[in-house]
Predict the 3D structure of the following.
Amino acid sequence: MVKVRAARAAEAEALTGLVMRSKAHWGYDAAFLAACAPELRIRPDEVTARRIVVAEDPQGNVLGLASLEGAGPLATLGLLFVEPSAIGQGVGRILYRDVLRRAVQQGVRRLVIDSDPHAAGFYRAMGAVAEPTGPAVAAATAGAADTADAADTAGAVHSADRSGRLVRFEAAPAPLADWARAWTGGGRAVHVGNVAEFNAQFGDSSLDREQAAAHHYSCLAAFYSPCPSALVLPRAVPAGWTDLVCRQLGWNGVEVYDGLVERGPGLADAVRARPALVARLTGAGEPLVPWGLTRPFGLLTGRPWRSGELRYESKAAAHGLFERILAEGGHPGIVLPAQVRAATRWSAARLLAARARAGKSTVVKSEHGVGGSGTTVVTAGQVRAAGGARAVLRRLPRGPLLVEEFVEGPPDPGAARDLTYDGFVDADGGLHEVGAALMDVTAGAYRGATVGPGVVPDWAEKPVLAFGAAVGRELAASGYRGWFDVDFVADAAGRLAPTETNLRLTGPAIAFMVAARLDALRGAGHLVRIADRVELGARLPEAQLEELCADLARACADLGAVFVPAIPTGAFDPAPWMGVLVAAHSPEALDAAESLVRAGAAAVGAMFDAPASAAP
């Protein structure tokens, strides 16, 4: 394993040789290299002053070096060179991340990088942002950052620029967000993918008996905190998937325990049946983080189980909670849609029929649901087309139904419609605000979410955060401890209507976790989008799925974006799909990355289409 250490003054001459070999790797002629040599020379008395570090292999061979120059809040990545024989092995990536880590410790908030054109693809892939006008500076400056691990990271080599002009980038070193440190104590955590186990305690009839959908979504356990030490998964996952996720998010030493429950929801019980595994997962004293709280998880961790702790997972109970908060005043931008808990299917049909006769749309909800399951928007026209309200209800899941007023959205179809607040209550009852996000919801079903700076419109952010915090305080007072969210819809007048709480992790929570990790790894300001389902053009064997994901990762890196396959197991369903995460520093790059991923995923079927001329 490559390790980073401080350079020594006695190494100055050898390090200068490494720098010149690295510079020469791109084919610069002797005259140009001679002109650069005085400024690229490292003197013994500069090693400490320039904060030079080296990367070395287990045998002590120096593979590369980097320097962090200047004092916070502004500093420069003065040198970043890799031994030519080590290019493509991840050395540049390790050195760059070490520079960002040290910059944070020294109070640097703006890191300037003057990159050789050949290394520009590397810095773009690492999250640095090129100045809009693309200024260039002379190659002979002392701040030349050069020849990092471009092939390993960006997969692209820019054409040589014999004039030696450099491309200026900037990065914004950032510490891990305060809420992320509070979530797991600032360290690593064991992630337990008990999605099916959580759902099963509510008897969610909108999911199949074997909880196939829930087992797919348990793959999101990779992202339950910004830095996992182990993943505990019910079904087997491709080994190449975890390798790529760890590479994209800079994780090392993540252990994977999968294939523990091929059928049914009993993940925590399956772990408890393996004493050696329990000892491994709990022995290091790291927190165990589940998708949601359950009695079996409480037994696994020794956490007291309080059944009433999850009562606001009920949509009816949450509606009552919202009503009580609004009755106290202080939330002028929030309105609550009327909701009736139908005693029987007949009464639900009568309520639906009455609203349809008045030409109104209605939201019909199951008491519990996941990802929009059990929530159906019914228009007056759909009631008529179905032959009446009872015919509509026969198609819905069994169990108690809630009949709710439909909130008409903004007239502009591009306006923000579905938003969410995420936060958590810590073990001491303290409330931690994570933030607000914009969700993609179609016909009542969650499809994904986007988090990051500027995602939520200014008019909506303040009321979302204020009301979400009010709900969090009530949850804390009721005894709940853990992650929660509050979902909202915007109405035509620009007000927000809370619709439900989720007392568990969620898709937006996953996006927040990845944003926190990428901000600390690549610089502040990431936008992260989680797309629930990206359709694949064909079912692929594991090796071909791994190849597709690697190709998408490289293509997104060329855009300065990050691609992370979030749910790989759906790729093996009869109608193949996968969940994905994309991240970037700008909305334009984020949208471009998502479009690229969707197009690439859809196109995989083309390789199986025989040419027309080959038909018999």
User: Anything to note?
Assistant: The two ends are 55 Å apart (CA to CA). The CA atoms of residues 439 and 449 lie 4 Å apart.
